[in-house]
Amino acid sequence: MAIFEVPDWAVRLRDERKARLWSQKNMAVRLISAADNRTRNGLPSVESVQRYVRGWENGDHRPSDLYASLYCRVFGLTYKALFGEPPKAGELVQARSSAPTLSDAASLMSWLTSTNTSREALDHITETSLRLAENHTQMPASEALHEVTRLHDQAQGLLRSGRQKLRQTRELYKLDADLLAHASVLLGDLNQDRTAMALGKAALMCAQEAATSEAAAWAAMSKTARWQGMYQESAEFARRGFKSSAPSPLRAMLASYEARAAGLLGDVHHAREALARAEAAAEALDEPDTGVSVWSFPRPRQALLTISVTTRIGEPEASLRAVAAADAAWQAGLARSPGTWAQIRVGAGIAYLMRGELDGTMNEVTAMLDLAPEFRMATVTRYLDDLAVRLRQRKFRNSRDATELLAGIEEFNASALLANSQEEA
Questions:
Q1: Residues 14-37 pLDDT 10s
Q2: Burial of 180 by CB count in 10 Å (0-12 exposed, 13-18 middle, 19+ buried)?
Q3: Rounded to whole angstroms, how far apart are CA atoms 76 and 90?
Q4: DSSP 3-state of 192
Q5: What is the pLDDT of residues 75-99, one digit of tens each?
Q6: In whole angstroms, what is the distance from residue 328 CA to residue 335 CA?
Q7: What stretch of H or E contains 410?
Q8: Domains in the chain, ordered, with CATH?
Q9: For 103-151, what is each residue's pLDDT tens digit?
């Protein structure tokens, strides 16, 4: 007697479900929930769909186009990844000798309503993406990256299924452009610059495909290029993003990125000119900045970029004025980002050191060395590296305070690197 062999697609359906620790009933609930409202109203009960799931996983019969589409949405995978190559067009459409019938029209309408990406799926990705962007400064980078990557996978699964309308395809490209740019920033915070740059470029391509704003992608690439020591490219990326962006906090941020890169190049005139453009762009905003989004540019972040430029071009007094502005904003009730706060404390420490006031440096920097490990991102540790180089100057060589502070910086950075390596494992 022949032994029935379960088809590969049935095994994949079962394995994908089990990998997520879902029961067959839970799978049925998720399939129904993935449908749009109109389609969902026509679906059978959870118990009936659960029986379908059992039959599909046993290989008794293959899911219809509708349920195959819902599976793709739920798993965030393409049709090909789950079910193999789809039937060829010639296998679906037979030659006709007569005009289309009412049945043909009904079939087409059913396909249009059941196989295109649902409004609910797009809204879910959009809303979750916005929430993650808004909570950027309040979440550990590794945790935010995990969530952003999950949403990116969902968007890609829908895009690669090829079962959406043109406008939905453009919307998905726009969503994925934002997600990739956000992921690029997060990877930079985790000291993974090479991957960050690759995702920044991918974000730019998605934005261009969607014919939407490229500003976030240029900002992500500018920041990454700066950390890679590519200061000329960083300035150019920021300038291109500034030119392509509408009035927004991100536009002001891009001008500041250009100023930062110019300062690192030693081009004082260019740095001051770009910094002035950043200040003008920030002052021109009509609505207050939330201060916590990945694309926010509130007063403390403006101050941070000002500090990074002015300490580079030798203006410690301007740096300390920026520190005072940031502290005043927080005292007035603006949400405080742990990473921004830590960097401003280090920037203040550098400014005091430039004035020869090691006591001031000790007071500022010691206050942030207890920062929780999950917030010890690369943007903080690299700033501390700059301070450490300055503390090793000959004039501080015999200072006990400088030696103790260097030891504290080394311990802080080592803890950050350990935390990041454990997250990546």
A1: 998 988 888 999 999 999 988 887
A2: buried
A3: 28
A4: coil
A5: 888 888 888 865 444 433 333 344 5
A6: 12
A7: helix 400-424
A8: 1-84 (1.10.260), 298-425 (1.25.40)
A9: 445 444 444 444 455 667 777 788 888 888 888 777 788 888 888 888 8
Cα dihedral 410, 414, 417, 419, rounded to 10, equals -130
Q: For tokens 């309408």, name the residue.
A: 109
Task: State the virtual CA torsion across 398, 402, 408, 413 in degrees, nearest 10.
Answer: -100
Residues 6+ away with beta carbon under 8 Å from 175:
122, 125, 126, 129, 155
224 and 196 Cβ atoms separated by less than 8 Å: yes
Which two structure tokens, joined as six digits, stand for 264?
A: 């690192």
CA distances from 145 to 172, 196, 200, 201, 340 (A): 19, 11, 14, 17, 18
Question: Hey, CA dihedral for 78, 19, 171, 213, is it positive or negative?
Answer: negative
Phi then psi dihedrals of residue 116, to 5 deg: -85, 155
b or e along 205-224 (b: 16 or more beta carbons within 10 Å of the residue's beta carbon)?
ebbebbebbbbbbbbbbbbb
Sign of CA dihedral 212, 275, 185, 287: negative
Q: How many CA atoms lie within 13 A of 336 on its CB side?
A: 15
Q: Confirm if 178 and 145 have CB atoms less than 8 A apart.
A: no
The overall longest dimension of the chain from CA atoms, in Å, is 97
Residue 27 has which token pair? 């799978």
